[in-house]
């Protein structure tokens, strides 16, 4: 999931450099959503992993 967030971030940066504002904004928005989902899943896995071992 983090890989996809980074890919969309790179796409957004390239599109912004080339002047494609709409595509850059959309790709950046998708990257933000994927990064947020990754962080939430990471924290959940840490909590449940810690509870299982404890």
Describe this structure as you would to a colleague.
The two termini are 27 Å apart. By secondary structure, the protein is mainly alpha-helical. The chain contains 2 helices and no strands. The protein is rod-shaped and about 50 Å long.
Index terms:
54 residues; mainly alpha; 93% helix; 0% strand
Short characterization:
By secondary structure, the protein is an all-alpha fold. 93% of the residues lie in helices and 0% in strands.
Characterize the biggest β-sheet. none
Gyration radius (Cα, Å) is 15 Å
- What is the total tally of β strands? 0
- What's the number of helices? 2
Mean pLDDT, rounded to whole units?
88
* Helical content (DSSP H or I, runs of 4+): over 70%
Helix and strand content put the structural class at mainly alpha
Shape: rod-shaped
Unreliable stretches? none
User: From N to C, what is the helix and strand string?
Assistant: HH
Determine the N-to-C terminus distance: 27 Å
Strand content: under 5%
Structural topology:
Elements: H1 2-18, H2 21-53
